[in-house]
Amino acid sequence: MRKRFFIPLAAVLVSLLQAGESYNFFMISDPHLGAAETYCTDPAVPKKFRTKKDIRRADKCMPAFLAMCEDMVKKSDGNTRFLFEAGDLVEGGTKGEEVHKQVLTDAIGLLKKYFKIPIYMVKGNHEAYGMGGENAYRTVLLGELAKTLGKEKLEYSNYAFMQGGDLYIFIDCYSGAKAGQWKFVRETLRSLKEKPRYVFVCMHPPVIPSHWNQQEIRGICDLLLDHNAVLLCGHCHQNSVTVFEKNGKKLVQVTVSTFLDPKPKKMPVRPAENTVKQRLDGYRNSLKNRWKNASFIPEFDREWAAHITEYRNFGGAGYAKFDVSDAGIAATYQSVLLDRPPVTVRIRDAAGK
């Protein structure tokens, strides 16, 4: 395997020696792993972490998750570079710090049992949830990630590296402003001496459409548009592709969901929706449900909806394989129902176009 170049926060990227390399990687998100006996019974923890459904999901969904891991391993080859787990690896909300540490350790160990390639992760909203969750997350997940990156220590899941002439930026969206994730993105991109073939920004929550700090996120989007970046996200439990175009530039956001429902007939949750109107109507409804005063909707229509030109939702749950080369980037979705044929979608055209 060729050498990767890891980037400290203020470092300047110099080398693009691997330009032109063809390779692939796998992505999963939101498996919400956990063992039934570890779920919290403390009444102070929200009820959803104590329901029979959550306990049943842990037991019922594990065979399907392991079958997906086996399928990914079977489809790996000499050009497979890494696995990206986009957050919510575990359910969280456990009985305490030691239990949370054990759940994280078991979940990471399970992935390492199947995958002998580097496993890159970011923090999801469930990663540090519950009593002692933050300390467990910092000790186990950040500790494991630091070893993978060859670093002595990581404070947040903000890091970046070059692979095959392409820049990968991973960011922590759940440690508050102190994580400085958008500053990290800006400084990493501005430190470039040469333009990468492709730029990937990897995180847990989607950006497009967004109800985050609008001034900040629009500034970041403008910067990412300059690089025609690809956003790799999870959180929304969807397998989808959203295209955002502005001033002749394009951002492509890909979301992947490995979230499984314990009822066999509902395993491929989230039916496919394939029109921009369906996506935007759904998002407007979520805004109305989230806030009594939906004053953000006009701003959403002006700043986001007007620039979303394509949307595809493949429904279900599963994983994605990305093929990256000078000819472009393609994502292949494989349903957890492994007898279903995979679906391949073009993410980017040839490098430089």
Structure description:
With 353 residues, the chain is α/β, with parallel strands linked by helices. The protein has a single domain (5-348), classed as Purple Acid Phosphatase, chain A, domain 2. The chain has helices at 52-75, 97-114, 133-149, 181-190, 214-226, 276-290, 296-303; strands at 5-6, 23-28, 80-85, 119-121, 159-163, 166-170, 199-202, 230-233, 240-246, 249-255, 308-313, 318-325, 328-335, 343-348. The protein has an eight-stranded mixed sheet with strand order 1-5-6-7-8-10-9-11. A six-stranded mixed sheet has the order 4-3-2-12-13-14. The two termini are 28 Å apart.
Radius of gyration: 20 Å
**Low-confidence regions:** 1-19, 36-43, 45-51
The strands making up the biggest β-sheet line up spatially as 1-5-6-7-8-10-9-11
Name the structural class.
Answer: alpha/beta
Helix percentage range: 25-40%
Helix-strand topology string: EEHEHEHEEHEHEEEHHEEEE
Provide mean pLDDT, rounded. Answer: 82
Number of strands: 14
In DSSP terms, counting alpha (H) and pi (I) runs of 4 or more, how many helices? Answer: 7
N/C terminus separation: 28 Å
What characteristic shape results from the CA principal axes? globular
Fraction of residues in β-strands: 15-25%
**CATH homologous superfamily annotation:** Metallo-dependent phosphatases
As for the CATH topology, it is Purple Acid Phosphatase, chain A, domain 2
**CATH architecture group name:** 4-Layer Sandwich
Tally of discrete structural domains: 1
CATH class: Alpha Beta
